[in-house]
Amino acid sequence: MNKDSLIALSVVFLVLAFLWMESSRESAETPLESLHAVQMSVSYGTPVLDGNATDAAWSKTEWLPLDQSWIGNPPPAADFSGKYKLLWDENNLYVLAEITDDTLMDGHEDGLLKYWDDDCLEIFVDEDASGGIHQFSYNAFAYHIALDGKVVDIRPDSVPAYFDDHCTTRRITNGKISTWEVAVKIFDGNQYSDQPGEENISKMLRKGKKMGFALAYCDNDRSPERENFIGSVPVEGPDKNRGWIDAGIFGLLTLD
Tens digits of per-residue pLDDT, 85-96? Predict the structure, then answer.
């Protein structure tokens, strides 16, 4: 190969390298807002975690609807209705959910077996709002919180496990209305480890931080399987039960 050919190849290589770097830079600078169809701001506040919605901290934020049917037809209000609020402080994201449900069902003695077919609150969190697949990874978490407060998600080895130290829950049920108050610790999934002896430290939260988030409720009226799965965000397409796999359907939270 002569000198002119080497020069030409070098120029082509440099051009391709420049185009690749520009493409990578543009991808890295893609606004998170463009990845999420639903966006909301979350107010600062530390509520008393007692299963009541009367704490003064909750008065500064509005109720949001839990009304998107991910599984089943939209249930009548007499069967199910839900709404929620969010707050944050340096240590936790706080979720307040008021669920009206005519039947509470916890039919599986083993909390790691078919937990999604019992009544439970499900909190989805993507710490860096990056979206993407998280079914068998810690790219995002899908916390199934049972009526007894146990918290289940799936590990990278595809085995369900308890993550009780991630969520502290207080629930009070009066008649058909259950008030769930949950303090959620936020973990960096890129650094999270479930290996014995490894210590995972939750993130300190700061104003301006953005996270992926969705809320849902599994509703079972004493059937072998849940009849309804009601979420907080609309999901396009026929398969709406994708939150446990794809963090891209989550909404985008900005800590205000």
Answer: 999 999 999 999
